[in-house]
Write a structure and sequence with these properties.
about 325 residues, alpha/beta, 3-stranded antiparallel sheet, 15 strands, about 20% strand
Amino acid sequence: MIINPIINIWIMTSICIFIILIGISKKNKRDIITKAVISFLLFMINLRIMIPTSDGKMSSNNLDVLFVIDNTISMVAEDYDGNKTRLEGVKNDCKYIIEHLRGAKFSVITFSNSAKIDIPFTNDTDAVNNIIDSLDVMISMYAKGSSLNAPIKDMGYDLKNSAKDISRKRIVFYISDGEITNDEKLKSYSDLKKNVDGGAVLGYGTNKGGKMKVKKYSFSESKEYLEDNTQNTYPHPKAISKIDEENLKQIAKDLGIEYVNMQKTSNVDKILKKISRDISRDTQTFDVNTCNDTYYIFAIMLIMVLFFELINYKRRIAIWKR
């Protein structure tokens, strides 16, 4: 049995005690029991008790797929497939790739001011999709400019670990708009080529560019368009981010993979078909940590209790009016 509380257990305990105390204050035995039952059901719902299920068979293949994702501020520029943000496109496209290469192991590296391995190679696509869903750019006050050199070290580490198993093929999807805004020169990725068997550099953005709406402060939920402070005019015009395909094509050349400009998800289909030809499939049994949620059982019980309480309340109001 696993618990996965929605809110802190101690906070929920305090809320439940408060509800029971309201019942006690009315000095009505029936009210006390009802409030106690409601509190118990709320507490159980909040616990989110999950029951592990039995292991199941999964289709596996010989691919290790590495996503290297640029999450600098420019990735929220609104020029993907119309006026969607580049990051929206990245999320949809990554999930599309995961679905079409199901059975592979996936890893995610993100980079902005620095790089990090968000998840090492794993068969757990739910965990990978959760990482993809949670992608966001940093708050503008912490941004220090875009560098495409940040992920090289972590990519080398991830790919080298994968290469220990010679039966597996390493696929890289390097995802960026290619912009460099911190005056660094693009370093070579060619040292990584020996451990890359396929994939593509996926370029996001347009030559026209797009505006970027971001959070300025960590304590604020509101977003505003980034301004171009390099201009002498006031008010400052909105900053525009444009794709730099020259950098992206150079990275693709260094890694020995293709470059694809992404303005719609289907642009990656050609690459996926090419990868699929080299897939070796077999069926194995894995210890899958899947769990069945039970909170809905207590939620149904709570709804029933509240429904009968509502009927009781209306009945008492009707008697009182007489």
